[in-house]
Amino acid sequence: MIIKSLQLQNFRNYESCEIELDKGTNIFYGDNAQGKTNILEAIFMMATTKSHKGSKDQEMIRFGQDEAHIRSVLFKEDVTRQIDILIRKNKNKAIAIDQQKVKKAADLLGLLNVVFFSPEDLNIIKNGPAERRQFLNVELCQLDSFYLYNLNHYNKIVVQRNKLLKEMYDNPSLKETLPIWDSQLASYGSKIIERRNIFIDQLNEIIAEIHDKLSGGREKLVIGYDKNVASDELEEKLLKTHQKDIMLHQTTVGPHRDDIIFTVNDIDIRKYGSQGQQRTAALSLKLSEIELVKNSIHDTPILLLDDVLSELDSNRQNYLLNQIGDIQTIITCTGLDEFVRNRFEINKVFQVTNGVISN
Ligand SMILES: Nc1ncnc2c1ncn2[C@@H]1O[C@H](COP(=O)(O)OP(=O)(O)OP(=O)(O)O)[C@@H](O)[C@H]1O
Ligand SMILES: [Mg+2]
What we know:
6-stranded antiparallel beta sheet, Glutathione S-transferase Yfyf (Class Pi), Chain A, domain 2, Rossmann fold, about 25% strand, binds adenosine-5'-triphosphate, alpha/beta, 15 strands, binds magnesium ion, 6-stranded mixed beta sheet
């Protein structure tokens, strides 16, 4: 699949712009704070209906305006498709596919697949479990609408259960209702755990070879699912921890406490890895993600590289860019030097200056 064009109106610092993308490698370069990442954010919205930064919809509307509009024309399985997203102040966003309004935002998922790679992703291994869970959720929500459905329900129930735990302090009789919440939580939660299991198995099948090459055969990288609780034990554990949960006003068991372990030659590199080791493993993870998405959708995703090349040494840059192959890639950077120096093939170059794009 490829994105043929992108049109923005009153999105972030863009008043109005229209870009025709190449099917190969596209570069957006410019100084800091000019609007390069905003372009990738708009594309990420098309794929996931959300900002990659977790921004609220309202924040993406250009200052002083009431609506932002993103339009993208794709070419997928030999068919031209159009996505429109209208972000409105104090209202839910409206989404249309081929000019037909969709009922709910989730109906858009799966039409456009992207793999987003930012410098923060290089820290995924040294960061906390919340970032690693976020990685699982972003990937799985794109690949599996059931996962998204289960996750949305699960998250809502955790919030409601926590609220109940708080209220129980003043009203102990509420305790009787807790098992009802436990059973609902277990029903959605166990599906999340099972899907994460499969995902991590699939990643492991791919990552070993990639990391072997990236580390010059020196390291054996294995990802483990550090689950808080097994899917078939979730309900029982929830029941058993009532006392603790009531005391802490928090749901202390469940997949919202999961983590992923990264081991290199059997050592947990979250704790004991060198910075370079952690970053290389993170790069392997991203490269595996591309392969996994390819295998799942039987098509190529769009690769979005936000300022990430300057963070890698030239060996790893080379490896990444050679891996890309036939994937449409959109790269942001502040200068073009590295490309010229390393003679990477660039198909189209855009300069970004204060919300205006020229080429
Ligand atoms: N809602 C908004 N309305 C208008 N301008 C906005 C809005 N949100 C962000 N901006 C502006 O967008 C610019 C940041 O854009 P962006 O993050 O794309 O920059 P960048 O070119 O990627 O910079 P860097 O190289 O530092 O990553 C800032 O100048 C910011 O003030
Ligand atoms: Mg940026």
